[in-house]
Design brief:
194 residues; 0% helix
Length: 194
Amino acid sequence: EYDCDAATLDYRMIYASGVGTPDYEFPEGVGIRIPAGYFLNLNLHLFNLTESEMTGESGVLIKEIAEADLTDEAEMVFGGTQNISIPSDGQTYTASGGCAMDAPATLLSLWPHMHQLGTRSRAVLTRNAQPQTLFDEPYAFAEQTFYEPPAPIELLAGDQLMFTCEYVNETGETVYFGDSSTQEMCFTGMIRYP
C-alpha cells in the first residue's frame, strides 16, 4: 500500500470508467497483458454530496484469455487537456487537446470523460491535412459511454487526434481543471493496440 490520489495512474492504465459506463469487451484475440507478479491499482474517485457516511462496492471484472489466444496487446491512454477555465455566464466554452501518432496503431474505442458541466464531446482525426470527425455527440455525466467505430480505425504515424469538450457553467464561480466533480476534466480514453 502507498499514498495515492486521483492523479495516481501508475505505469500503465488498464481501464477507466465513470458514472454509467457500460462493460467493455475486447474483440477476439485482443487483450491487455498483465505479467505475473504485477500489482493492480484500483483508483476510485468517489464524490459524497451528503453529510452521511457513504458505503458501497466497486471493482473491475477481468476476463482471462490463454496466451496462445492473445494476438494483439492493447492499452488505454488518455488524450485531452488540463487547460480548462470556464466562466460562470451560461455561455458555451470549449477546451481542446490532442496528440500526434508517432507509430501506427489500431483504434478500437473512444471514451470521453468530463464532469458535471460537460455538454458535448468531439474527436477529430486529421491525416494529410484532411480532418475526419470520429464522433461529435452530446455528453451526459451520468451516461459516460464508449464510442466504437463500425470498424477499427487504422491510425498512421503522423496522424493527429484532437479532442474537444464543451461546457456550460451556471455555478456562480469560474471552474478550472481538477479531480473533484465540482471541477472539470477534458479527456478521451482511447483503447488501441499495439
